[in-house]
Amino acid sequence: MALIQETDYGTPIRITDKIVTLIIDGEAVSVPAGTSVMAAAMMRGTQIPKLCATDSLEAFGSCRLCLVEIEGRRGTPASCTTPVEEGMVVNTQTERLADLRRGVMELYISDHPLDCLTCSANGNCELQDMAGAVGLREVRYGYGGANHLDAPKDTSNPYFTFEDSKCIVCSRCVRACEEVQGTFALTIQGRGFDSRVSPGGMDFFGSECVSCGACVQACPTATLNEKSIIALGQPEHSVITTCAYCGVGCSFKAEMKGNTVVRMVPYKGGKANEGHSCVKGRFAWGYATHKDRITKPMIRKKITDPWQEVSWKEAVDYAAGEFKRIQAQYGRDAVGGITSSRCTNEETFLVQKLVRAGFGNNNVDTCARVCHSPTGYGLKTTLGTSAGTQDFASVDDADVIVVIGANPTDGHPVFASRMKRRLRQGARLIVVDPRRIDLVKSPHIQADYHLPLKPGTNVGMINAIAHVIVTEGLVNEDYVRERCDLGDFESWARFIADERHSPEAVEDLTGVPAADVRNAARLYATGGNAAIYYGLGVTEHSQGSTMVMGMANLAMATGNIGKPGAGVNPLRGQNNVQGSCDMGSFPHEFSGYRHVSDDATRQMFEAFWGVPLQGDPGLRIPNMLDEAMAGAFKGLYIQGEDIAQSDPDTQHVTAGLAAMECIVIQDIFLNETAKYAHVFLPGSSFLEKDGTFTNAERRINRVRKVMPPLGGLADWEVTMALSNALGFAMHYKHPSEIMDEIARLTPSFAGVSYDKLDHLGSIQWPCNDAAPNGTPMMHVDRFVRGKGKFMITEFVPTEERTGPRFPLILTTGRILSQYNVGAQTRRTENSRWHEEDVLEIHPFDAENRGVLDGDLVSLESRSGEIALRAQISERMQPGVVYTTFHHAKTGANVITTDYSDWATNCPEYKVTAVQVRRTNRPSDWQARFFEEDFALKRIGPDVDAAE
Ligand code: SF4
Ligand code: SF4
Ligand code: SF4
Ligand code: FES
């Protein structure tokens, strides 16, 4: 295996049907119009020397190394800034050019520390390469004059250094931060010889920098360099794989030395990220080899016993024996399983197969229950399929972007960068969110409308927007007539036109001025292609499914589905939340969203799996916990999930877990749920296994093994062993065989195979005979369900109410540097940006309570109480407080309630009535947490060693 080197064309590749032919060094070359001479030369295999150009950035023309001669033109133009023209005759290699280029290089080298042999970039440095390419043999100027060789080094960023003495001021980093990332953290300060790169006059750690790594990627020298490269040296080989954090699904080259990852480099060929990354995927992979990894199977009879390390066989046999005992004693339905949105499609498919075929019931659920289950329900009901409608590239064609209940710059950073680029190009922006998220105002971006609604009033807001569209004659009638069910539309239009839905009528409810709602609605309906992007601020409500349908209604009414730049687009939280749903993780559905009661589908699975299957839906996670409390549910197999931390109303969850007799956890760390477990099966990180993840745009990406599983078995092998021990045989030799089975049993995956994925890079489902290479955009000529179905979306207030005892509303979210329950990111340097969860509170509410910034405050709801530090913030509106849930010790879910979406049971994380008071001690729950944390995670002496 070798290092994968991607071609750098020097300037961006243009895509157009217009082709221009020119002559380069005597040979005809045909390229798209708008291509630079530099890129055209590279397309025929001629690399013109360059330093300030790279194909992720627009040409800048500052280094003057890429000079060429063009017949009929005077001078020597820069090839990076010169577009091709029909019939142009270009010479890239002449003596005059060679002299000029050597002269330029001589100047650069005369102000460069020539420590190449000990430089961390030795062998991977464009300056070094260019010195060789232009044939530089001597530097006449010496080091006597003014230079920058003593410039200080900035090592403040946890992941990369800035060694100013090596900087050639090509400004690639500055432009990467602007054009690719959109953060504008870097500038060139000073003029002429004094020009230096600066992160705003401070060090990197204290600056606006979000550590996306784009500047490091762009830097042609060792000036910006990964600390891992400095520590470990240059990599030897690389493997293309997929980030295991969020639902953007970025592709990376895992660059390795033996079995050690040296760095993760975003892959330009990755269709979800096109060479960009965020701090998590790019740098926060060290958790995979963290000392906390549990790599030996463990069992214990009681949760108060210390863990005992045992062999894989002993652990698997013990788990299978317990599940069989429980089923014999309490009945077939007393056990179940939870699949993970962090694991691969293949692993998820196996877990649900084990439950349906091995346990013989449908008690399988997934963590998507607590995030995007309303997306599945709402989009399937209205449009016919449980997935987003567009690919990410579609945003490049959007004229109006509506962001509802999502915070893309923190939650989906790489897509946010793409969205911000489109906004800088002039797309209009509407943000619907209780909190003033970064997108509302960031460098060169200002939302046209921010509608800061009160949490819990989403449906009132979407109805008000729809009311304006219907009553002001803004419906796209041709589209509706042609594409939608007219009867349903007319009922909906009558419903929505009612005055009680007008922006004025709901102004008190939502807290948003009616005029703003009217103007935003007009902009959405008339501003051109309009795209809705939404997140958990939509779904995690008692009316999550209603809100998803409300957004689909809006998009259908305005003709904004089935074309580029439009659509209803869920921003999926976890890396494989789409995939875990696709794979049949819900208790009522087989893979491909087919109901278990559908006889034909069930019979097909029965025939293939060779066992009878149940036709009634099984238990959802909350029902499993309820049944456990009632004494009827006793055993649970959980792969890659930490429901004790991630699910709402922690005390109810832990009481349910504590009531069970056998909990089997398969994970990479001893998580919070493991406190209640009897068997621990070591999981494998994404670096240790083969498989696929499906991202938010339905894109199936390959996950490739770059190192052996630390525990000896990949997750799919563990599930297989457990199934075999239960008596339901599974015999896969490689995850590709599992994908072949998925393809055979799932129409939307019918054309998917590892061979095709390797060939195409990635595939967006549906992929079948009708769409052999996949489907970037859904519902193009007709909706998947036939006619689009408008649904009545009556606003029903949540039962969670504020009052004198709990006057504030708590809403929750995430932060860029941490991820979900923090199990991975807390074990990386990312914690330096977010060491603890804090409570954001508006100055008015803080002052009323005598709370100062940084004070410890008690946060109490009807469910419980926790303590955390206050951060006074004008991002909040008065009456609303906000926190994250990345740290187990915070216990944010101790105070969330068990109210949930009426259709899917997705918890209402976003609305909890609370009170905030100053305090000087942790809550009782937190005090107990620290005691139990120690006691319940105790690992006893190694049994084998003791013997
Ligand atoms: S790491 Fe990203 S945000 Fe930070 S300076 Fe570099 S490009 Fe800008
Ligand atoms: S830090 Fe690197 S990319 Fe930035 S100006 Fe200096 S050499 Fe160029
Ligand atoms: S945007 Fe998401 S998928 Fe991409 S690198 Fe960041 S966490 Fe990973
Ligand atoms: S690469 Fe063209 S001017 Fe620098």
From TrEMBL:
Q: Which residues form the 4Fe-4S Mo/W bis-MGD-type domain?
A: 236-292
Example GO molecular function: NADH dehydrogenase activity
Q: Which residues form the 2Fe-2S ferredoxin-type domain?
A: 18-96
Q: Which InterPro entries match?
A: 2Fe-2S_ferredoxin-like_sf, 2Fe-2S_ferredoxin-type, 4Fe4S_Fe-S-bd, 4Fe4S_Fe_S_CS, Asp_de-COase-like_dom_sf, Formate_Dh-H_N, Formate_DH_asu, MoPterin_dinucl-bd_dom
Give GO cellular component annotations, separated by semicolons: membrane; oxidoreductase complex
What keywords sit in the KW lines? 2Fe-2S, 4Fe-4S, Iron, Iron-sulfur, Metal-binding, Oxidoreductase, Repeat
Any single GO BP term:
formate metabolic process
Under the heading SUPFAM superfamilies, the entry gives: 2Fe-2S ferredoxin-like, 4Fe-4S ferredoxins, ADC-like, Formate dehydrogenase/DMSO reductase, domains 1-3
Pfam families, per database record? Fer2_4 (PF13510), Fer4_7 (PF12838), Molybdop_Fe4S4 (PF04879), Molybdopterin (PF00384), Molydop_binding (PF01568), NADH-G_4Fe-4S_3 (PF10588)
Give start and end of each 4Fe-4S ferredoxin-type domain: 158-189, 200-229
Q: What is this protein called?
A: Formate dehydrogenase subunit alpha
